[in-house]
Amino acid sequence: MLKAQDESDAEIARAVGCHRSTIGREVKNGSTTFPDRKPKYRASVAQAAAEQRAKRPRSGKLAASDRLRAEVQTRLEAEHSPEQIAARLKMDFPDDAEMRVSPETIYKAIYVQGRGELHRDLHKRLRTGRALRKPRRATGERRGKIPNMVNIADRPPEADQRAIPGHWEGDLIVGAKSASAIGTLVERASSFVLLLHLPGDHGADTVATAMTEAMSQLPEVLRKTLTWDQGSEMKSHVKIAAATGLDIYFCDPHSPWQRGLNENTNGLLRQYFHKGVDLSVFEADYLDHVAMKLNNRPRKRLGFKTPAETLDELLSKTTDPNGVASTA
Questions:
Q1: Has residue 272 got a pLDDT over 70?
Q2: Is 19 helix (H, G, I), strand (E, B) or coil?
Q3: Which of 49, 130, 165, 265 is the 20 to 30 Å CA partner of 7?
Q4: DSSP of 50-106, one letter per residue?
Q5: Which backbone phi and psi does 225 adopt, to 5 degrees?
Q6: At what angle do helices 103-111 and 66-77 cross, to 10 degrees?
Q7: In angstroms, how far is CA 247 from the centroid of its own chain?
Q8: Mean local confidence (pLDDT), 293-304
Q9: Distance (Å, rounded) from C-alpha 40 to C-alpha 215?
Q10: pTM of this prediction?
Q11: CB under 8 Å to 150, separation ≥6 — which residues?
């Protein structure tokens, strides 16, 4: 419209808020030419040209560089992840701009059909091995389900050293169709186990009640920290902390190794609570019996002492005769 009114490129640029050279390029690309006549800008011509340009197939970065494609392919075959490859290329070729690629570009080259940039069977080298890419978020899924979480990175260093008792890891083992569960707690320094009886459900309120009851029976010196994953059963963590005195920390998503002792303990518990069974049938007395068996089983990690023996020794070192934590 402004061009039809014979406005200059500079005046049009000021009106629409861009540089006049942008207007100049648009006018040039959208103008029709006739013999012996001045080119005339037509919006319909410009739109048609833009749509045609958008249809043109564009080769990806990996298709445009044989060196980069070969390097990425070699590292994928070595089972490096796209994120690892992108980071290492920057380190291994610091002054070579050609050897730069984003993880997303690598994923697209593997998964997007018709690009022809990487072998299609390279998806088998990825950790997941999926033939199709799985969305990171399911429809309707909400992030940050647990309010006021404190990340494991803020956990005190003494919890990492396993020299002082009172730091726990926890999780649920889940029964058939995720309809039943047992809460598992393991003390990091001694591998001492507590099991939470959850006969009705394993929702946040039920877990909070069971954990508060179990932890309240322990001396204060054994109630320092608890590390859990980001399961919704811990939505009431603030209530648990207030009732027990525990400082509660949460692992990063999909990082079970951050509470590896608990993962190992859950594996041992499957000797008694097999996968695919209804865990609600086990009475609280039986859970106490299983915990006692594990706590009195010699463990190689403890020099073949039992968790119960180890915990007794640690408590004798960290408390004075009156049962108060030592400050030495």
A1: yes
A2: coil
A3: 49
A4: HHHHHHS----HHHH-HHHHHHHHHHHHTT--HHHHHHHHHHHSTT-GGG---HHHH
A5: -135, 160
A6: 80
A7: 22
A8: 92
A9: 82
A10: 0.56
A11: 247, 248, 249, 250
